[in-house]
Amino acid sequence: MELRAVAIALALTATAAMADEPVQLLTFDDLDGWAEDDHSAALSVFRNTCMDLDGSDWEALCAVAETAPDARTFFELFFRPVLIGGEDPALFTGYYEPELDGSRTRTSRYRYPVYRLPPEVNGQWLSRREIEESRVLEGRGLEIAWVDDPVELFFLQIQGSGRIRLAEGGFLRVGYGGRNGHEYRSVGQELVRRGVYQPHQVSAQVIQAWVRRNPVAGQTLLHHNPSYVFFREVDIDDPNLGPLGAMNRNITPHRTIAVDPDHTPLGAPVWIEKDGDGPIRRLMIAQDTGGAIQGPQRADIFFGFGDEAGDAAGVIRDPGRMMVLLPIERAHQLIPDA
Question: Buried (b) or exposed (e) across 52-70, using 16+ Cβ within 10 A?
């Protein structure tokens, strides 16, 4: 019930926020590449979370979706594309599920702890620098596992979930368990501010390489982001499934996006038109959120797990536009004269 209550609250917040944003009602003919997409793949992912959407219209659409209708007809018959936020370009980035090497036991190699949320954390707590320099978490039994690379651990916190390949055998999956209440600050933007790189040069791989080449300055750079993420252990029923997203369901590579739930209802279909290198025209499902994902024209594309997915996700920072597919009546309520 708690997760459903959260989903309902986020949906209501998104509806209220839409009323304060420029909204344009479109047709499916206005969507570049719509006819060429695999709508059946999108419908399958939509069914994974549609039961968590609140409202009689969403509930009715979810029931229809379960009857395995023709996918393209389903979306065109019951939805309308809505452009929220005006004509300013969208910003698309990518994320992935990192895969780290680690152990459940601390060793000389595996000595960097992955912590669960301390019980006293409620609201804003110590910053990243204060946590690491004070060693306030040590010796309290809060360690889920230990990993061998502090830089990869930092990026695990940015991604919010990941898999740890255990030295003992098998995998351990960790999901978002809470945070210290500090705002996320981009270390990539800080490198640009310092004049180390130009904006187009910055990627996760570039940042990791710079920190490893400059260990002292690199530690200071990581402390520029005061946000610190804690984790929880998540059961892996099927290692081929993606991690749990904000709706507590497994997310799907290349079909799930993280959005700002203040503007886009979690669980809603979203048509994205990502420009730049490797343009994407695809129907995604908004099943996740992220601290850096803010605004109506902002989305993070889930690329999967492991190094290959990380390489692909780390270079995405492209413009475009995104349209939320809303039930017809709900879409027309946003624009009464439409």
Answer: bbbbeebeebbeebeeeee
User: Reduced to 3 states, what is the DSSP secondary structure of residue 137?
Assistant: coil
pTM for the predicted model, two decimal places: 0.77
Do 292 and 263 touch, CB atoms closer than 8 A?
no
Q: Is 285 helix (H, G, I), strand (E, B) or coil?
A: strand
pLDDT tens digits, 168-226? 998 899 988 999 999 999 999 999 999 999 988 888 889 999 999 999 999 999 999 99
pLDDT digits (tens, 9 = 90+) for 122-156: 999 999 999 999 999 999 999 999 999 999 999 99
Backbone angles phi, psi at 272, to 5 degrees: -115, 140
Tokens at residue 72, please? 């393209």
Strand partners, 281: 273
Closest C-alpha to 327, from 47, 56, 6: 56
Ranges assigned E (strand) in the chain: 23-25, 79-84, 90-97, 99-103, 112-115, 143-147, 162-166, 171-179, 229-234, 256-258, 269-274, 280-288, 298-305, 317-327
Q: What is the model's pLDDT at position 6? A: 40
Cα–Cα distance, 164 to 104 (Å, whole number): 10
In sequence order, what are the residues at sequence separation of 6 or more whose Cβ sits closer than 8 angstroms to the Cβ of residue 198?
Answer: 192
Cβ(145)–Cβ(104) under 8 Å? yes
Distance CA 105, CA 63 (A): 47
Could you tell me which of 222, 102, 124, 122 has the C-alpha nearest to residue 181?
124
If pLDDT is split at 50, 70 and 90, which confidence band does 11 have?
A: very low
Query: What does the pLDDT look like over 85-103, one tens digit per residue?
Result: 888 899 999 999 999 999 9
147, two tokens: 């990993």
In the chain, the amino acid numbered 66 is E
Residue 94 falls in which region: left (phi positive, over 0), alpha (psi -120 to 50) or beta: beta
Torsions phi, psi of 154, nearest 5?
-60, -45
